[in-house]
Input
Amino acid sequence: MSDSWAELYDYEKWSIHALIGIAAILFSALALNALEFDNPLTRMVIEFYIDPVLDDAGSDAGYNEVNTITYAVVLALFVAALSAWLRILEIDSSEATILALLPYVLWASLGEVVEDAEMFDSTLTAFFVSPGIHFQTAIWVVIAGAVGYSISHREMYSELKDNSVEVTSSILILVQFVLYGSSISNSEVVAGGIDLAPFAVIGVSAAFLPWFFRESTRYFTHVQRVVYFVGLGGSMIFFGALSSYAASVPEDQLVLWPLLVVIGVPVMICMAMHSRGIDAASTLSSHGLVAGILPPGMTEDEYLELPEFFPEKELLEKHRNSAAMAYPVVFLAVSGQVLDGLATWIGIDYFGYQEKHLLSAKIIEIFGSPFGFTLLKAGLGAVVWYFFAVANFENRQQHLRLLVGLMILVVGMAPGLRDVGRLVIGV
Output
């Protein structure tokens, strides 16, 4: 570990202190509530944060102005603090990390759809609505990452490390299957006549994913492989649950065409952006450069002071706009915004759904049409690309760059996937 507290950026230190303070306030309020001590702090926490989460289970009532702003602030603070932690641990900061984390976007989305279908019993329902679902997702990422980190630092042959990755990943997938399967099997909806055979077959099969994808993930680090496998396996478990649900409902309740639009269009955007930018990205890569990341030891002020004809600066400035399109952190973040916009438009205009997020609902109200929201999200996607094309991250800020992209990806793609999942199975 090359970094210490003294070497952290000021914004990282402030973020860590702020998160500790927020956590202290929250636990103090809960502790006072447990002691049955009536006070304004506890009442505020229960009114604006606890009750909305409980009310959101099985409904769409979980957001208000106070908790929406709080969640946004906490997310930004968490991104800044986590970037410091990952840098200290010397976790790989390449684009592969984004790809390893991508299954958790699907994991969270499918888990919420399972909850929307009321397939969890009362013990887990509240953990699959916001913000509980996000904390739960983070916990699995941390567990998988910690296991992978431990394996990567063991003194053993490479083959034994690889075997350890597959074995431990399979165990963690099976833990998810048992944990969530027990809740699903005890739910009232399942007791009403849903056949869990598809869930059992798909869920057990998920444990073999690490072995099936063993060769195709060789370019991942051991940490990335465990994270990827556990997220993908968990997603498969929830897909199995939804498969059982879909098999139990009338065929006319299942609608597949939204998938073609909501998933198909973003996929084409990803392919088009990658194709457009890969040559420029390859040119920069051949010189050891990445668009938006400054050479080691150089600050942004130092970079801006360089003459335009300085070789590295000239090369970066020439190719950065196109090269940015080829990076997963960029094209996935852009496509995530478009996906959310399409899902919202189709859900409201064609299926009679309502927007529960306060800001999104206000935007739709201003435009007078859900399609206006879709166009705005497409425009936001263009802004995301422009940001990564022109932003300059110091070499030590590569983790921050990845996490900013991941944050933008999650807030767009996750609710969009949840929405389209609900549309398909009619919940």
Summary: The longest helix spans residues 257-286.
